[in-house]
Amino acid sequence: MNEIRVGIVGLGRLGKVHAHNLAYNVANATLYAVCSPLDSEIEYAKNELGVKVGYTDYEDMVKDEQVDAIFIVSPSGLHCTQIQLALKCGKHVFSEKPIGLNIDEINETISVINQYPNQKFMLGFMRRFDKDYLYAKDLVEKGELGDLTLIRCYGIDPSDGLESFVKFAGSSNSGGLFADMSIHDIDLIRWFTGQEVKKVWAIGKNAAYKELDDVGELETGAAMLQLGDNTMGILVAGRNCHHGYHVETELIGTKGMLRIAQVPEKNLVTIMNEHGVVRPTSQNFPERFSQAFINEANDFIECILTDRQPSVNAIDGLESTKVALACKESYEKNQLITV
């Protein structure tokens, strides 16, 4: 097998990123099928991406014998059911984060994954495939920072998407701010330290759109984490960044510190004019992590072709979701939560 035929479910903003990459940027992969309830999205895939087959029913797609692997980029609450069905139909599975929104359902899914050791399962924590994060990871593993003592993470979406999120929150479940956004940072903290989170304390505020209070969602939140070896983590998550898409990570150790994307630069251009000295910044996640998305998809396909297990697995999804849900509980109950 030299070419993996892929079917993708979900053609929203992130789904289109994965679909385009599978069609044009991922070696040894063919985007063979798409699944969406919207005819317009299926037509887009056929006309713009050269997809041969479109489905409105997910079960029909995973039963297609021409499909070797499934990419799941659907709403978070569907992930566990869709992962299980794809595996039972003999497919390799890549799923976007989070793996699920319910711990019991995630544990059930992990049990199913373990029943199919010859099929590959990978979770979409793409920041592990970003060159800057990989560079920082290498420095940490070489001991350049000494023993890590604190990791601070910012993950703030651009404000131009906040109004549409408010509408979404009124009818759908994102899993909450920490599961929807901070889960990438939670995964990075686990990845950099090799430690699990033991306790969390979370707070938050709705300022620009107070109506989010009525649907149990957060516009801006923060959390402090205590890891197993007492390393500290600080999460800042939000949906109202006016300069663009702000993802920043700081690592502090006994021998030094580093910051990844202290300024979320779009490129190496500096503009000097009547507005002062300005550095253009990344405006959204497809732009900031464009190559990371390609890298992770390439890695998944390579895992299938070389019979290698992916480095990002279901346990990473379980542990990160545990922490994200604990942060949500801490905010709602206004108390320290043991994970």
Automatic annotation (TrEMBL):
<dbReference type="InterPro" id="IPR030827">
    <property type="entry name" value="Myo_inos_IolG"/>
</dbReference>
<dbReference type="GO" id="GO:0016491">
    <property type="term" value="F:oxidoreductase activity"/>
</dbReference>
<protein>
    <submittedName>
        <fullName>Inositol 2-dehydrogenase</fullName>
    </submittedName>
</protein>
<dbReference type="GO" id="GO:0005737">
    <property type="term" value="C:cytoplasm"/>
</dbReference>
<feature type="domain" description="GFO/IDH/MocA-like oxidoreductase">
    <location>
        <begin position="133"/>
        <end position="259"/>
    </location>
</feature>
<dbReference type="GO" id="GO:0000166">
    <property type="term" value="F:nucleotide binding"/>
</dbReference>
<comment type="similarity">
    <text>Belongs to the Gfo/Idh/MocA family.</text>
</comment>
<keyword id="KW-0560">Oxidoreductase</keyword>
<dbReference type="Pfam" id="PF22725">
    <property type="entry name" value="GFO_IDH_MocA_C3"/>
</dbReference>
<feature type="domain" description="Gfo/Idh/MocA-like oxidoreductase N-terminal">
    <location>
        <begin position="4"/>
        <end position="119"/>
    </location>
</feature>
<dbReference type="GO" id="GO:0006740">
    <property type="term" value="P:NADPH regeneration"/>
</dbReference>
<dbReference type="Pfam" id="PF01408">
    <property type="entry name" value="GFO_IDH_MocA"/>
</dbReference>
<dbReference type="InterPro" id="IPR055170">
    <property type="entry name" value="GFO_IDH_MocA-like_dom"/>
</dbReference>
<dbReference type="InterPro" id="IPR000683">
    <property type="entry name" value="Gfo/Idh/MocA-like_OxRdtase_N"/>
</dbReference>
<dbReference type="InterPro" id="IPR036291">
    <property type="entry name" value="NAD(P)-bd_dom_sf"/>
</dbReference>
